[in-house]
Design a protein that fits this description.
There is one protein chain. This protein folds into 2 domains: 115 residues, no CATH class; 121 residues, no CATH class. The termini are far apart. The chain is mostly helical and 238 residues long. It contains 14 helices and no strands. The chain is globular, with a radius of gyration of 19 Å. Helices cover 64% and strands 0% of the residues.
Length: 238
């Protein structure tokens, strides 16, 4: 049990509370078990940077890991991503936190906060690849989003696309992560991404959602948008 006192931080967040934003956030992040206070992201990022620069950031992580306030959980994700420590320690901290991630925003906040150093990229990739193979919804989403965001080049890209080919999950947010990831990876591995759609590897929802994401992208050509539309599955058949 950590001796770190979260009370001053909670008081600080309370002073930054925005009721309207809390209501907006509740609609944006449905299903989260945590309670949102309504503190805006730029303020949370600034606080996370302060935590990372402090001498007791490890104590903060231990104290905040299971906390029931959304902003505390998001600060944990941001501080964990930005913490300076050996990769072995970082991976252990991520592994300990992922069971408590219950929404896409904290999951993706962790992914965007992680900036792997060159020397750490292989070890982190092995970890996220294993996460992408997990049956746990947000651990799988973490793996998929991390690969999409940070491993879009060789020697990783062919293994990333193999992991996407093998995707299967019934969780909504895992499926959305796969669809978003494929639409992004199209720009780096078009033929592999197209093959996933042509080979009918995914369930109807994820397949069609990926096509929707591709058609919404400003970076996909009109010809490719027409091509993937022809691959959309219709109700009652392909």
């Amino acid at each position: 049990m950590s001796a770190y006192d979260l009370s001053p931080l909670l008081d600080r967040l309370e002073a930054l509370r925005d009721g309207k934003y809390a209501a907006f956030n509740a609609n944006l992040v449905p299903g989260a078990a945590t309670v949102a206070m309504g503190v805006r992201m730029p303020m949370l990022r600034a606080i996370a940077r302060e935590i990372v620069r402090s001498d007791d950031w490890r104590d903060f992580l231990e104290a905040s890991r299971e906390h029931g306030v959304y902003e505390i959980r998001m600060l944990h994700a941001m501080a964990l991503g930005g913490a300076k420590c050996p990769i072995e320690e970082k991976l252990g901290l991520i592994d300990a936190f992922l069971p408590f991630v219950d929404n896409w925003a904290v999951c993706d906040g962790l992914c965007s906060s992680l900036k792997p150093k060159k020397a750490d990229r292989d070890a982190l990739f092995r970890f996220v690849l294993a996460c992408a193979e997990s049956e746990l919804e947000f651990r799988k989403r973490f793996g998929l989003v991390m690969m999409m965001a940070h491993y879009r080049e060789e020697p990783y890209l062919h293994r990333v696309m193999a992991a996407y080919r093998a995707f299967h999950h019934e969780g909504y947010y895992a499926r959305m992560g796969a669809a978003w990831g494929l639409a992004t990876l199209w720009l780096f591995a078009r033929d592999d991404a197209l093959a996933i759609l042509r080979d009918d590897l995914w369930d109807d929802f994820t397949h069609n959602k990926a096509i929707q994401k591709l058609r919404e992208s400003y970076r996909v050509s009109e010809a490719d948008k027409a091509l993937v539309l022809s691959l959309k599955r219709r109700k009652g058949g392909t």
